[in-house]
Design a protein that fits this description.
By secondary structure, the protein is α/β, with parallel strands linked by helices. The protein has two domains: 89 residues, no CATH class; 64 residues, no CATH class.
Length: 176
C-alpha cells in the first residue's frame, strides 16, 4: 500500500507554531551607529591637570560634526583628577551631533544603548504572553540587556523563557 494515499497517514503538527510563544530578539535593538571612546587624557597637561582655558579653546575650535550619528563614551585613562564640569562640557558639545553620549567605557555605552532601546518597548505588547528571549545573535548583546528585559517583562508576562522556542530555559512563570 502506498503510504501517501493511506487514510491512516499521520499529520505533522508544528507545535512551536501553535504554542502561542512570542519570540523577542534583543539583537533587533542593536544600534548600528559607530562606537567611539573619547579619552579626555589627551587634554591633560602632563597627563595630570586639565587647564580650563586651553580646554575651552579646544572645545570651541574642534570639529564636532565628525561625531554625527556616533555613540560616544567619554572617559579618562590617565590617573588624574578631572573636574566633573569637564565631562559636562564635552557632553554638551557632543550632544547636538552624537546619537548617544555616556561617561564610562565602551561596555557602559553598549549597556546604555540597550537600556535606552528597551525603555521604548511597549510592555502591553507582551501582557499575559508566553515570551521567549532569543539567546543567540550576531551582534553583541550585553548581559545587562537580558537582566533589564527580565525586570521589565516579569510583571506583565504569563511566562518568560530564554533560548529558542523549540529549546528554551524557563526563567519565570506566573502562579495561577
Amino acid at each position: 500500500m502506498d503510504p501517501s494515499t493511506s487514510q491512516d497517514k499521520e499529520l505533522i503538527i508544528n507545535r512551536v507554531a501553535n504554542s502561542g510563544l512570542i519570540t523577542l530578539d534583543l539583537e533587533t535593538l542593536y544600534h548600528p551607529g559607530e562606537r567611539v571612546l573619547y579619552d579626555i587624557k589627551q587634554h591633560l597637561y602632563q597627563e595630570l591637570v586639565l587647564r580650563e582655558k586651553e580646554f575651552r579653546d579646544f572645545l570651541k575650535t574642534h570639529d564636532w560634526q565628525q561625531y554625527s550619528g556616533k555613540n560616544v563614551a567619554i572617559t579618562c585613562t590617565a590617573d588624574a583628577i578631572v573636574p566633573s564640569w569637564a565631562y559636562m562640557l564635552l557632553a554638551a558639545y557632543l550632544a547636538p551631533y552624537a546619537n548617544m553620549v555616556v561617561f564610562g567605557t565602551l561596555e557602559d555605552l553598549e549597556d546604555a544603548l540597550f537600556r535606552d532601546a528597551l525603555a521604548k518597548i511597549s510592555l502591553e505588547d507582551y501582557r499575559n504572553a508566553k515570551v521567549v528571549i532569543k539567546g543567540c545573535s550576531k551582534y553583541p548583546v550585553p548581559v545587562s540587556a537580558y537582566v533589564e528585559i527580565t525586570r521589565r517583562l516579569q510583571p506583565v508576562v504569563a511566562s518568560l523563557m530564554y533560548g529558542e522556542p523549540c529549546s528554551n530555559v524557563p526563567i519565570y512563570k506566573r502562579k495561577k
